[in-house]
Design a protein that fits this description.
389 residues; alpha+beta; six-stranded antiparallel beta sheet
Length: 389
Amino acid sequence: MEDLTKKDKFLEGKHLVVALSGGVDSVVLLHYLSKFYPNKVRAIHINHNLSKHSKHWETFCKTLCKMQKIDYKNINIFVENTYNVEENARKKRYRALFSEIKDNEVLCTAHHQDDQAETLLLQLFRGSGVAGLAAMPKIKKINGCELYRPLLGISRKKIMDYAIANHINWAEDDSNQDTGFRRNLLRIKFLPRLNEMFVNLTANIARSAKHQSEALELIRDLAELDINSYSLIINDRLQVDGLVRLSQRRMSNVIRYHISLLGYVSPSNKVLQEIITLIKAKADAKPIVSWSHYELRRYQNELYFFDEYQTHIPKHCDYFESLKDLPNFEIRYRIEGQRIKQKNKKHSQSLKKVLQEAKIPPWERGRLRMYYVDGKLRAVEGLGEMEEA
């Protein structure tokens, strides 16, 4: 879509959720979607509680939706006003938004062509590769939800023209003028000067992002070909024996692709080289590589990836669900020298040996939940039902 006078074919028949900040871009998006898709739109406002005007923006959005008879919800989040506040706010905002999206809904954000150009330049200044320079995709699946950017082909000027022509009011975010934020500095100080020298600058930069996006798809296609040809992923774990058959470039490509599928932040080139060194090292080498709050471990020629923020969240377990409501139900954990007797086994065995035979990695063994009823072991997470301890 390159103008605001036509329907967006992708949105036909869908239920839409607008991430409504109160700024001109999101207010125009709400107006446009409500006009072309009546009774199919609702809005969510995220109050970051970072500005003294936060409550005013929340009230503005609520009043706007009430006047237009659009279903509205406000969500409060709290972001520490410390280093990299923009990134922390973005992560919390999307986490809150996606938690509200229903199965039949599409989340729509108001990113536009100028935002795309700014994003590419910021990624370029960071030394990003193809994935970074591809900037923002028009459509993306995150946690099973669809994120769509209807205005990505529309310039900021056209959005402002639409707002004026339709007598639309919006709320100004005072932080948009703070050049202490790199994006604002780029938009306010540098891009206007560059626009004087280069015709259609933002459109051309956005087009470059599209070219990078196409290149990224080809790179991902190659990763999938390698994964399928060499059986590189089994049970969400990368297989070392297959990876070492690839050239280093293609090995790196598969690793980055797998990390992106997990939704993790891509590692730096230095960290990626540490991962490759770990893959090529002997089996008894140091088996851990860390970056940000992520971690990779090698065990029995498989690579396990972890998000440290998620490792302590208990996984779903059918045995837990079937036993938890029984009287005198308890959860215990492994103790040294423990023996167990699995269902349909004739003899008891060392729990340590059973865990080894089940190929459960050492770092997971101490966290496995053991389910007791009336003091008797009934089941062990990851192993199954027990007859007696």
